[in-house]
Write a structure and sequence with these properties.
By secondary structure, the chain is α/β, with parallel strands linked by helices. Helices cover 38% and strands 20% of the residues. The protein folds into 5 domains: 2-126, Rossmann fold, CATH 3.40.50; 146-293, Glycogen Phosphorylase B (Rossmann fold, 3-Layer(aba) Sandwich), CATH 3.40.50; 321-478, Spore Coat Polysaccharide Biosynthesis Protein SpsA, Chain A (Alpha-Beta Complex), CATH 3.90.550; 516-547, no CATH class; 551-738, Vaccinia Virus protein VP39 (Rossmann fold).
Length: 740
């Protein structure tokens, strides 16, 4: 068998310790893409191997800019390629789907993306992450000498959560490269672990932490092998939550423990450190579950079966794309008119080409020499058409053959700072025909309305002036392992290159973090100044006052005990519930009518018997109505424009519910129901026995409802008969306390 991927010469690399160790045959060819210097060298290694070995399968771990891949099938038609996409959670749109066009079978680990690929006309093979039980196994007789441990590198929320535990006195050990540079964590750092030492730490820890946030985007969570490796070692595992757990058969409190926020994280650790029996039960069930369902042998048995049954197993619904290429006279490229799925027209840029341009699937403009070829056009046309975008931007190379630079602009950064797209040369862009018919082959000055797609795979080189190349490198150049590269450049006395590399990395770091934060802070100050002194926006002025006077702290500043009852009307995803539980450990009945949000709250507090989640609205009477689902602003009012998703919801009578429960007192009722508060409050205030049972009200009135000001004034007048105003930020939040 042939294995190709990055870092495969590292015996500790995940692909080596898991996949190669599980399915390798002993005489395999293993190619580390970080060690080969060219496509030619890689092809020569494979050719030499095939002279001796009768190979049929290549396992390829796609990762970066491996330019051997596009032409691989034509070079070795007898080999079938199985491409393993490791980061499909966040790379399927900008990288994975383009390489999938050139493989026999590709695997993804995110079940929700199966439908996405099928819409593209591509058939993926769903292969969730797994483990190698011959590398990860329990050590018998290992005593639990470590309370809490984490193995991994420091990035994103990991740092924040680890520091939070240390600050709260948790006996914690962290392992892995990079922790030593953080003063607050260094004393808890145990260095880098070999696989043998890792087994000792997992088996010797009462609680093994697992963080699912991706390094690329802290908002994204993804289950990977570590989740399964800890279980294969029979370790108890505490992880942040993911919808993907259901696809793996993991259930909170049964074969894994899950936390939802920092306070819940701390409380779960404290709980399980003091409940040995529950901890033992969970880790043994996790061990049995993983061995039965989640090993790499089982995964690849299914992969090879698909190949055996279907031959070329990635079924593609191909279509032809009509492409117009506008070329300035004298410019060189590698585009030909012969391609199975492209109908290409190449015309002089200065000719009369506009007739019929709106019927084109893609239009490209070449003003400089490049190696743009038919494969480049095909991938760009595929992405542009699949997304129905206005423009697609592709990564590319600048520099010479021996000293090339990858201009790598990632969708996350570009979408956060859209103005950066204007720094790209037109040669890396393909426009839709409809867009070109309206605006020509150029971006508008304001790109906020443009629909843009991206290709992170660089399949061509552009010949640009030194000034143009240097400017692009400053913003976008990708240097693999820059620290090691900097050392090599200095040792080889290439000081100019070392200085250039340092400038690139410093500027890019500023661009991604501090500079952006400072600009954001300045923008917020300017917005506040404009709202207050120019626009005189009363609602925004009230909002700034709310922030300046600590309004968020006031929202939880009540005299409550753990016996208190809070009713949260409009729970959304449960943040207010979490604060009440954290601060008072009290009972909370939370009402959320939208199914998705209600389910999130239920999962979030599944281990807390004091929280009751009711999937219903709180209103005047029992009924059903439609709500416009728009996140925090979901409401039964408005939504005529059609942008929101409508969902049929159940509403129950607030009065009937409270009376039926026999509650002697409701200590706090928080109401945030996007315009429904007026009807609800009037029904409560009209019931004199009920209103006297509610100690505190916390209300957010909304001014988009007709006659909102008048209705608010009337409700406040009624409420003042039984309650007194505690604090008030009109149409933001206000709070009332029952009179003695």
């Amino acid at each position: 068998m042939i294995f190709i991927g990055p870092e495969l010469s590292d015996p500790h690399a995940h692909f080596v310790t898991n996949i190669i160790a599980c399915i390798g045959e002993g005489d395999d060819l293993v190619i580390d893409l970080y060690k080969v210097t060219s496509k030619k060298e890689l092809y020569e290694q494979i050719t030499e191997h095939l002279r001796i070995h009768d190979e049929h399968i290549v396992i390829y771990n796609a990762y970066e800019d491996e330019d051997f891949f596009i032409g691989f099938k034509s070079q070795f038609p007898g080999l079938q390629i199985i491409t393993v996409f490791s980061d499909d959670e966040w790379r399927h749109g900008n990288y994975d789907r383009y390489l999938a066009l050139y493989t026999d079978l590709f695997t993804i680990a995110v079940k929700g993306n199966i439908k996405v690929y099928k819409k593209y006309g591509i058939e993926p093979f769903y292969m969730p992450w797994a483990c190698n039980p011959h590398m990860f196994y329990p050590l018998s007789g290992q005593s639990k000498t470590i309370d809490v441990s984490f193995i991994g590198t420091p990035y994103g929320p990991r740092l924040e959560y680890i520091q939070f535990l240390i600050d709260n006195g948790i006996n914690l050990q962290v392992y892995g490269r990079g922790w030593g540079k953080y003063p607050g964590i260094k004393k808890n750092w145990g260095g880098f672990l070999s696989n043998e030492k890792m087994l000792e730490v997992v088996s010797g820890s009462k609680i093994n932490l697992n963080f699912l946030w991706t390094s690329a985007d802290k908002e994204r969570c993804m289950i990977k092998a570590r989740t399964l490796e800890i279980s294969a070692c029979r370790g108890f595992q505490l992880s942040n939550d993911s919808d993907e757990f259901a696809n793996y058969g993991f259930v909170d409190g049964v074969n894994i423990a899950v936390f939802h926020d920092k306070q819940d994280f701390l409380e779960k650790i404290q709980y399980y450190l003091n409940h040995d029996d529950e901890r033992e039960s969970i880790r043994y069930k996790a061990y049995e579950h993983v061995l039965q369902h989640h090993t790499w042998e089982k995964r690849f048995h299914g992969v090879f079966g698909r190949l055996d049954n279907n031959g070329a197993a990635t079924l593609k619904r191909q279509r032809n794309y009509r492409i117009l290429v506008l070329v300035r006279q004298g410019v060189n490229h590698q585009i030909t008119l012969d391609h199975q799925y492209l109908d290409i027209r190449i015309v002089d840029k200065n000719s009369r080409w506009a007739d019929g341009v709106a019927d084109m699937d893609g239009v490209m403009c070449l003003n400089h020499d490049s190696t743009v070829n038919n494969n480049s056009l095909y991938m760009m046309a595929f992405g542009l058409s699949s997304d129905q975008s206005d423009v697609i931007a592709a990564n590319f190379y600048v520099g010479s053959e021996n000293n090339r630079y990858w201009i790598r602009f990632r969708d996350i950064l570009m979408e956060r700072k859209r103005s950066l797209i204007h720094k790209l040369p037109v040669e890396c862009l393909m426009f839709s025909g409809i867009f070109v018919a309206k605006y020509g082959c150029k971006l508008m000055s304001d790109t906020s309305e443009h629909r843009v797609s991206y290709i992170e795979y660089p399949s061509f080189w552009l010949k640009l002036s030194y000034y143009q190349s240097r400017k692009l490198r400053l913003y976008f150049c990708h240097h693999r392992n820059p620290r090691q590269l900097l050392k090599e450049l200095i040792l080889n006395k290439r000081f100019t290159n070392a200085f250039s590399l340092g400038v690139d990395k410093m500027w890019q770091k500023l661009l991604k973090s501090r500079l952006e934060d400072r600009i954001g802070a300045i923008k917020r100050k300017l917005r506040k100044w404009y709202d207050v002194y120019i626009k005189h926006d009363q609602k925004r002025i009230t909002y700034y006052k709310y922030l300046d006077e600590g309004g968020e702290l006031l929202r939880s500043d009540y005299r409550l005990t753990k016996e208190a009852l809070v009713i949260d009307v409009g729970g959304y995803i449960g943040d207010f519930v979490a604060e009440m539980v954290r601060k008072f450990d009290c009972r909370v009945d939370v009402f959320e009518p939208v199914a998705e949000y209600s389910a999130k709250i239920r999962r979030r507090f599944s281990s807390n018997s004091k929280v009751r989640v009711v999937q219903a609205g709180f209103g005047v009477s029992e009924k059903h109505e439609f709500i416009n689902v728009e996140g925090l602003g979901s409401s039964v009012f408005g939504g005529e424009g059609g942008a929101a998703t409508k969902e049929k919801i159940r509403v129950i009578s607030a009065v009937d519910y409270i009376m039926s429960q026999g509650y002697p007192m409701v200590d706090l009722m928080k109401i945030n129901i996007e315009g429904g508060e007026y009807e609800l409050l009037n029904s409560i205030l009209d019931n004199h026995d009920l209103v006297k049972k509610i100690r505190y009200f916390q209300i957010q009135f909304h001014d988009f409802v007709p006659n909102a000001q008048k209705m608010r004034d009337e409700i406040r007048k009624k409420l003042s008969d039984t309650h007194k105003l505690m604090w008030d930020f009109p149409f933001i939040w206000e709070s009332w306390e029952i009179k003695e």
